[in-house]
Write a structure and sequence with these properties.
This protein has 341 residues and is α/β, with parallel strands linked by helices. Helix content is 35%, strand content 21%. It starts with a strand and ends with a helix. Bound molecules: S-adenosyl-L-homocysteine (SAH). S-adenosyl-L-homocysteine binds next to strand 10 and strand 12.
Length: 341
């Protein structure tokens, strides 16, 4: 079965050549409004015909948790019963959707719950779009855009699903659809250097975020297996190319882990690493997920950021939202899978 949201409006017209173009537009709008066949105004015979070959709504809400701070965390069931997460965050400057790009993940970062059961499969571009539409409809009128930003910081490694993510970028920014500005999209990667080079060539205006989490390759290797494939130096060089090409500031995510990456020496090395790069450091406190890694305290984290700022490094401490509802990457899904065992 093909998923209708995998098609752009043009592609859909080419796919459904025997259907009148206003009907095709209705289908396209139904995708963006997260409607199922029964909720549309399409004629019954057309619905029957479409149902045989196409999925209109590949995602549905399986569970929803609401945090005291308003953050909503969704466990979403896909058409093949796989589960993924999505988070809706209310912020002063607008609402942000945190989107997954894969079912599971194969990157193996030691602190991350998304990767515990490995990679199940990639999400298609249309599935990612349909998840956005689903969560959008749950947070306001379904025919309006109720979010201003999307961050690809849910489960999965976006650059490990490169083609589908690139296609999704085109769908989500399409004037026919949500018409989201590239500048309001952030893509977070653990640092697949070859793919960063490839992304640079696409010349998107998105914000590229790299999960650095360590200041030496040796430390990085102990928490992120990807560090065995790419050196920090190679990441920095790829980012320099990205900045030169796009003129966009890049962001480092730096998750503070007690006695692993939170020393004064790390501050010194961070200054060194970020010296010749248009960048910002987003410091996060580890959300412990039961492993041996412990979080640096909030006060220590504030102090770490202050020292970075004093050293001339642009850095802020990211406010953690939704931590009372398994807000960190993959925690809700991991918990659900464990309970099922
Ligand atoms: N695979 C991508 C995007 C997904 S994770 C990446 O690695 O960037 C989004 C961010 O959350 C990453 O910076 C990731 O390292 C971080 N993260 C994952 N688990 C976390 C945890 N338990 N506590 C704090 N941050 C975490």
């Amino acid at each position: 079965m093909k998923i209708l949201s995998d098609f752009s409006l043009e592609e859909l017209k080419n796919e459904l050549t025997h259907i009148q173009s206003f009907r095709v537009k209705q289908i396209f709008d139904a995708i963006h409004q997260s409607k199922d066949y029964a909720d549309t105004n399409l004629p019954k015979n057309l619905i029957e015909e479409l149902k045989e070959n196409y999925i209109l709504k590949p995602a549905e809400i399986f569970r929803k948790l609401e945090s005291k701070d308003g953050t909503k965390k969704y466990l979403i069931k896909l058409h093949d019963d796989n589960l993924i997460e999505c988070v809706f965050l209310f912020q002063d400057y607008g609402n942000t959707i945190c989107l997954s790009t894969q079912v599971g993940c194969r990157m193996g970062c030691k602190f991350c719950a998304s990767t515990e059961n490995g990679l199940i499969r990639n999400l298609s571009a249309g599935e990612m779009l349909s998840v956005v539409a689903l969560v959008n409809a749950d947070n306001g009128k379904c025919n309006e855009r109720n979010f201003t930003n999307i961050v690809l910081m849910g489960s999965g490694e976006p650059l490990d699903n490169f083609d589908n993510v690139v296609k999704w970028l085109k769908l989500i920014t399409s004037k026919d659809g949500f018409n989201l500005s590239e500048r309001n999209i952030s893509l977070s990667t653990c640092g697949l250097v070859d793919k960063i080079h490839e992304l640079s060539k696409k010349d998107f205006q998105i914000t590229l975020c790299v999960s650095l989490h360590a200041t030496t390759d040796e430390i990085r290797k102990t928490i992120m297996p990807i560090a065995n494939a790419y050196k920090i130096e190679d990441i920095i060089n790829a980012l320099k190319e990205y900045v030169a090409k796009t003129k966009r500031r890049v962001v480092f995510e730096y998750c503070l882990i007690k006695d692993v990456n939170d020393s004064d020496l790390d501050i010194k090395r961070l200054k060194q690493l970020t010296r010749d790069l248009l960048c910002h450091v987003n410091v996060i406190c580890l959300n412990p997920n039961g492993g041996s890694l412990k979080a640096t305290t909030k006060d220590e984290a504030k102090n770490f950021v202050k020292k970075l700022n004093d050293a001339g490094v642009s850095a802020t401490l990211r406010r953690s939202q939704g931590s009372d509802i398994e807000g960190a990457c993959g925690m809700l899904r991991a918990k659900h899978l464990k309970n099922k065992e």
